[in-house]
Specification:
The structure holds three protein chains of three kinds. By secondary structure, chain B is an alpha+beta fold. Chain B is built from 26 helices and 28 strands. In chain B, strand 4, helix 8 (133-153) and strand 5 form a beta-alpha-beta unit. The radius of gyration of chain B is 26 Å and the shape is globular. Chain C has three helices and three strands, in the order E-H-E-H-E-H. Classes of the chains: A alpha/beta, B alpha+beta, C alpha+beta. Chains in contact: A-B, A-C, B-C.
């Protein structure tokens, strides 16, 4: 990479994050706020938008898009903006789906697998622990491999399912980025809050630019809220971006 | 007209006669329906209005007192806090999920119609004994309903209370409170001002659901109540989420003159109240109201309680702009009429007048001053002497039993179903302190955030034994909870739940409770700015405990100084602020261990109470404290247990002997007591503060280890009870933290999986 | 003409159905010892215009593949009937498709 002048330009401007608002999104404000706290420039994108160019990263926030009627994320994936997001991702743009955003990415086929209701059939809101399984992605580059993060979850349908074949592929390609674990980093059934297959809490696509995760990093970037581990995800994005993290450069996992 | 249709609608014969007299003619069926809804207790407050005047409602900070959709207080920096509490008891008794869900929907609308962004929900719930399968079904359904609606709409449920007592078996209480934040410059009100302005109906279409819900809420529950299921409305949180965003947008745009939620009695109450407040009239054409079902009669359209609907009054040239904003959110906004100057509420169907009544008359239900009589039970209950009960042999067993009783046990099973973090303001989450704390993003600076503290409180058992005292304690306890986190009380919203006010004993309970609350509010300097009365909480002749629930908000100048309840550091000293007396009447110890609900409730010295709270608040703001926790149900022993579990560390306690029985010493529910812990170096300063405020002060132990050990020092005059014993000690409690935690944390979940209550 | 489609969406075999498990347990406790398995699914009724039954079926099956079912975890089955017959079955007069409300039942 020859980026001297590019770096200079970037040091003057901020990383620009777009937060999509679907009807029923409710973590849109939170993602916007967290991005700003982390020194990024944030902008909302309305679900009817057909153009998402000009952003360094798109966040699909949590919430209950279209009431989550039928299945979580099932209706939102047909929003006009999702066509644009899909194109953005195909060109290598960074896409982060959090909670409902992850569900939408699954429904849209940008990530493999599906979400089912939590195994206890109840909505669960609490802070859990995550183990960073792959610290080589644009979303985890500021973490150390195996690092344990304390991050809140808040969902009713976070029970990740994928068939055995698909799971083998995810593992083989290091696409599992986060797993639920205990406070010491042990991946156990007791540490699995919702029954997810193989304790999976977050996965990335094969190209390494689209990440979906159930936990909410945007809820823990400020000390006043009791935890700051969510900063690692945003700091990773910033690190990737400031290193000229184009999407063509350094995204692919393989 | 059939024989006496007004009776079916819940109107009394003399009320009907009065209507005929005022109107100078027989009312039409639609008019009769409108009267019966507006003159129901739920809308008209006819039995409570004169008593409610006792509340203090003003302070320097109050911007809007009772009478609007919600109350408002100034929190500085150009920002205001909006709050309101409401009951949804009867709908929840019949269909718990939808009853609770629509309760949330309604209270949210009360907040955002004022122009405020809802930022927090709290709930105060009461059910029967949790071993009863029907109770499990109701409890499970209500919690799911609150979660289903609140989580979806993205307003965090940050605090609450749940009690399990027999009198609520068939008539559970579901009281929900909502708090909003807004700019003081953007307050909207429910007024239909400006003759000629357009009246718009906004949001969902109107169906037949919930017709006569207001009347339903104003009668006792009986076996037939289940058959009335169709009266229960179904909530659509997704539509409400769109409605919040669209309404806040039109209010900020300045396009609306007045706006109001269609709550109980739907289109009738919203239009009538808006006109009455502005001293205007209104004419509406029902054929213009968007409907979900065919063939609805004027009566049905006027009284439907379909959810997620609002009425707005808009200047004619702004109608298109309003319509545009709503269209962008995928919502209907339709002009159905206009404001008139004749003071009449005129309803037309295809041009034909179907109702025409002066709005003021509808809005001003007759005021009754019912007879009040002190129930005979009170003297009997007060005659009970707790000293006649046997002293327990094994205090470990008693403590374990108390902390496993569902009313005291952890409410984790409940609050983990609620999204209590969405909107990223929740600085103190449920279960870690005596009140929830939210930072206000618009105020303060990073590192020095300004916060609000929120709590709901009431101990119905105290009110049953002495409604005046019990209600005053509810105010004192709410204020104490705020003091424990370091917050200054701002205002109260209430939800007053009682039986049938037409029975003199029930009305006496109501009157005494209001007096008790009002006196406590005056003494502590806290105004009541909004509230709700729920009467007729009786099922088959059994009334609930009188339950005046107090919702309170407070202000924290610096969220970073918030104090939580858990012990923090090995070696910290534990201090009890306030004095313990033999206050056993109505205690959990009596109920859970001895099966007795009797005696006099704890004494309340509001002077002393106010001093203890000021002392704790000062200490918190000076950063002296590691923890603070109020002594409530289960007394000192339970408070210490909770501080140990929350902090994940044990404590060694040595209590000075007194002439009190040891069970009284441990489990008395004396008011005005706070357990704090602090580094030893801060002790002198705290002691100075306590002396300054005139607050009883006693070092009772030290934080450390993995057990809770409680001893009584026999022999007087010891200088350091935490030190090695030169005196005779009697060990009362010695329990491992893990054992305590398991019992306390899993009790409700164990009850709920016991015999799995999936469906009934 | 107007057709009524009845759509059933069920979890694929082998995928754990937590709701079904809860109901199995409840039925067992209520004394229905003969129950071997419960699977919970979704049922929807769709009123649609189409030339003929096969045409209606083709459209509804497409709807299922695209939106109504998630092929990763769910199967679907579609029944097509003329709308009037449905109205007759329900015992309501067949007025301009009124009993054929479109909607997605949860």
């Amino acid at each position: 990479m020859s980026g001297g002048s590019g770096m200079d330009m970037k040091s003057m401007k901020k990383m620009k994050v777009g937060v999509v608002i679907f009807p029923g999104s409710n973590c849109d404000h939170d993602c916007y706020h967290a991005a700003q706290v982390m020194g990024m420039e944030a902008e909302y994108i309305w679900h009817a938008a057909r153009d998402v160019s000009g952003f360094d990263c798109i966040i699909l926030p949590g919430g209950f898009s279209y009431g989550d009627y039928l299945r979580a994320g099932a209706v939102a994936r047909f929003s006009p903006v999702m066509e644009a997001v899909t194109k953005f991702a195909e060109r290598g743009g960074l896409v982060l789906g959090i909670c409902n955003g992850f569900q939408i990415l699954l429904e849209a086929g940008l990530l493999p697998g599906a979400m089912m209701r939590n195994r206890n059939l109840k909505f669960i809101c609490k802070t859990i622990h995550l183990r960073v399984e792959n610290a080589g992605t644009p979303f985890t580059g500021a973490c150390t491999p195996g690092q344990v993060l304390a991050v809140p979850i808040a969902h009713g349908e976070g029970n990740y399912y994928i068939d055995p074949e698909g799971l083998r592929e995810l593992n083989a390609n290091k696409q599992v980025v986060f797993r639920y674990c205990d406070s010491h980093g042990a991946v156990t059934d007791e540490a699995n809050p919702n029954g997810s297959c193989d304790n999976i809490a977050g996965i990335i696509n094969r190209e390494g630019n689209v990440l979906g995760m159930m936990p909410h990093p945007e809820r823990c970037v400020e000390r006043v809220l009791g935890g700051e581990d969510g900063r690692f995800v945003f700091a990773s994005l910033l690190k990737h971006w400031s290193q000229g993290g184009g999407c063509d450069a350094g995204c692919a996992l393989a | 007209m059939q024989d006496a249709p007004w009776r079916e609608m819940g109107l009394k014969d003399h009320e009907y006669e009065r209507i005929v007299e005022i109107m100078g003619r027989e009312p039409t069926y639609t008019e009769l329906g409108m009267f019966s809804a507006m003159w129901s207790e739920h809308c008209g407050y006819k039995h409570s209005k004169s008593t409610l005047k006792l509340f203090p409602t003003k302070s320097e900070r109050v911007l809007q007192g009772p009478g609007e959709n919600a109350g408002i207080v100034d929190i500085g920096g150009g920002m205001a806090l909006v709050m309101k509490m409401e009951s949804h008891n009867h709908p929840s008794a019949i269909e718990p999920y939808q009853g609770a869900a629509t309760g949330i929907g309604g209270i949210l609308r009360d907040i955002f119609t004022m122009g405020a962004r809802p930022v927090a929900l709290l709930d105060s719930l009461r059910f029967g004994d949790l071993s009863n399968d029907k109770v499990k079904y109701l409890f499970d359904g209500v919690v799911s309903g609150i979660a289903g609606y609140g989580n979806c709409i993205g307003v965090p449920t940050v605090a609450g209370e749940v009690y399990f007592e027999e009198p609520y078996t068939r008539n559970p209480l579901v009281n929900v409170m909502c708090v909003g934040i807004m700019k003081t410059s953007e307050i909207a009100r429910g007024v239909a001002a400006g003759v000629g302005n357009a009246v718009m109906v906004i949001g969902s279409k109107t169906g037949r659901d919930g017709i006569h819900g207001a009347t339903f809420a104003s009668v006792e529950l009986d076996e037939r109540s289940e058959e009335r299921r169709p009266a229960v409305q179904v909530g659509d949180p997704f539509t409400e989420k769109l409605l919040v965003e669209a309404c806040l947008e039109i209010i900020r745009s300045g396009y609306v003159v007045g706006i109001q939620d269609m709550g109980a009695a739907g289109l009738t109450s919203s239009t009538v109240e808006m006109a009455a407040r502005a001293g205007t009239g209104m004419e509406i054409e029902l054929s213009l109201v968007p409907r979900r079902e065919e063939g609805m009669t004027p009566y049905e359209i006027m009284l439907s309680e379909s959810q997620e609907r609002m009425v707005a009054v808009v200047e004619p040239d702004k109608v298109d702009k309003v319509r545009e904003i709503f269209a962008r959110w995928g919502l209907d906004a339709v002009v159905v009429g206009h404001v008139t100057g004749d003071g009449l509420m005129r309803v037309k169907e295809n041009g034909k007048v179907v109702a025409e009544i002066p709005a003021k008359i509808l809005a001003e239900a007759p005021v009754y001053n019912p007879e009040a009589r002190r129930p005979a039970r009170i003297d009997e209950l007060h005659a009970f002497d707790p000293a006649t009960l046997p002293e327990p042999q094994d205090y470990d067993e008693v403590l374990m039993e108390l902390i496993s009783s569902p009313s005291i046990a952890s409410k984790e099973w409940v609050y983990e179903q609620y999204d209590y973090m969405v909107r990223t303001n929740t600085a103190i989450v449920p279960g870690v302190a005596d009140a929830a704390v939210l930072r206000v993003k618009e105020l303060g600076t990073p590192g020095h955030e300004v916060g609000i503290a929120l709590t709901v409180d009431c101990q119905g058992r105290y009110c049953y034994l002495d409604p005046y005292q019990g209600a005053a304690i509810a105010v004192a306890e709410a204020s104490r909870n705020l003091a424990c986190v370091g917050a200054e009380p701002l205002a109260i919203t209430d939800c007053l739940n009682f039986g049938n006010p037409e029975k003199p004993e029930m009305f006496w309970e109501f009157q005494e409770s209001v007096k008790g609350m009002a006196d406590a509010c005056r003494k502590l300097g806290i105004p009541v700015i909004s509230g709700n009365v729920s009467f007729y909480n009786e099922a088959e002749g059994v009334a609930i405990y009188p339950t005046p629930v107090v919702g309170m908000a407070g202000l924290l100048p610096d969220v970073g100084l918030t104090v939580t309840q858990g012990f923090k550091t090995e070696g910290d000293l534990i201090v009890l602020l306030g004095a313990t007396g033999p206050d056993m009447g109505g205690s959990d110890y009596l109920k859970v261990i001895h099966g007795v609900v009797a005696g006099r409730p704890p004494r309340l010295d509001l002077e002393a109470e106010s001093r203890v709270q000021a002392c704790c608040r000062d200490a918190a703001r000076r950063g002296l404290l590691s923890s603070a926790h109020d002594c409530a149900e289960g007394g000192l022993a339970v408070a210490l247990t909770e501080s140990c579990i929350s902090g994940g560390v044990g404590a060694h306690i040595a209590l000075r002997d007194s002439d009190m029985r040891h069970d009284f010493l441990l489990f008395s529910e004396s008011q005005g007591r706070i357990v704090v812990s602090l580094p030893e170096k801060n002790l002198g300063e705290l002691e100075g503060l306590a002396r300054h405020h005139g607050v009883p002060f006693e070092v009772i132990g030290r934080v450390g280890g993995a057990r809770l050990v409680m001893r009584v020092v026999e022999g007087a005059g010891n200088s350091d009870p935490a030190g090695p014993g030169r005196f005779q000690m009697r060990r009362l409690i010695d329990l491992g933290l893990r054992e305590l935690e398991r019992a306390w944390r899993t009790s409700i979940a164990r009850h709920m999986t016991d015999g799995e209550s999936g469906s009934i | 003409m107007l057709w009524k489609a009845r759509v059933r969406v069920t979890l694929k075999n082998g995928i754990l159905d937590p709701q079904g498990k809860v109901l199995e347990g409840s039925l067992d406790r209520l004394g229905y010892k003969e129950v071997r398995e419960v699977r919970v699914g979704k049922y929807m009724e769709i009123a649609l215009e189409a030339e003929d039954a096969p045409g209606a079926r083709a459209r509804v099956e497409e709807m299922c593949r695209r939106l109504l079912a998630n092929p990763v975890i769910e199967n679907f089955a579609v029944d097509i009937e003329p709308c009037d017959a449905m109205a007759a079955m329900a015992g309501t007069p067949g007025t301009s498709g009124a009993p054929c409300a479109t909607g997605v039942a949860r």
